[in-house]
Amino acid sequence: MTKADSTVKHCLANKLDRESQWTRKNSITTVAHETMESLPAIESEDPHKKAKTLVGKSKDSIKDSFQKKWTDHLKNLTVQGQFIRIWHTVEADIQWKSLLSQLPPRIMQFVLNSIIDTLPTNCNLVRWKKRSNSKCDKCSNKETLMHVLNNCLESLEKYTWRHNSILLYIKKFISKGLPDNVKIYLDIPGEFNGISTVPVDIAITNQKPDMVIVDNAGKVTIMELTVPFESNIVHAEERKRQRYEQLVNNIKDNGHPVDLITIEIGSRGLICKANSDKLLKLVKSVRKPNAKEFRAFKSDITKVAVIASYIVFYSKFENQWSKPPYINL
Ligand SMILES: [Zn+2]
Prior knowledge:
- Strands 1-2-3-4 form a four-stranded mixed β-sheet, sandwiched between helices.
- It is 53% helix and 7% strand.
- Helix 2 crosses helix 3 and helix 9 (156-175) runs antiparallel to helix 12.
- It is an alpha+beta fold.
- The structure holds zinc ion.
- Zinc ion (ZN) is lined by residues 136, 138-139, 141, 147, 152, 154.
């Protein structure tokens, strides 16, 4: 189809005339027409080539336009909207999106259902008329997905287990080939049992950051990990920064260069661009990873988070939580 074809031109004019009476002027025809009119002139003498290029460009432009309309529409839906907003606004790492297809089918299904909020939370069971109330069986608050995965005060032990699984994995990765003069202190029972993970010769404190790295020059890197629901990633960072502000100043006053790195991994494994950069900074405080190795590291963190959240979610159907071993990939 080309603009030059007189029959096509005639039909199009008729169709546009008819549709001009409609109140909603966004049919494929009107969009296609507006798109073709708005495209820049194509410089080619060959009419076939010109037509082919024009149709190709129109198709792309129309696809983008409808994609945008759908995304805007979905952003406003209460059920699916929240996650899609995050998907677009926090610059979700491309790697995370592609990684989902590599997960075991059951785990991938869990993540996809969590994105469109079709997991059997008590709120959904009520919507599906399979339950009479939406209360959490453990704490009586409204049981949404965020409640099960992150906010139930009766599930803190499960969340700690998930958090520590990720923390141990990060330590395992950065410890590979660690120089002898670098020490890592980790706030996990069994790994470290003192009052603070900050050595006393660096600063006296009773705070226990999740990870403290001290190199032979006395440079200190403090890492605090949070596994929030994806929509709370920004708030989690602010909270942790405030909590350690005083400690960071004390360490500086004692003559040690110090870095505070707060890392937020979404409970469904999302690592946004800002956190990907912070993870790289953390690893580089000890050694230089190559790009492939670093990509694999992030994929594994996502896997650990997603598998742990899968276990956290389905354990809601059990009366008792018997802590499984930490997830070790
Ligand atoms: Zn609860």
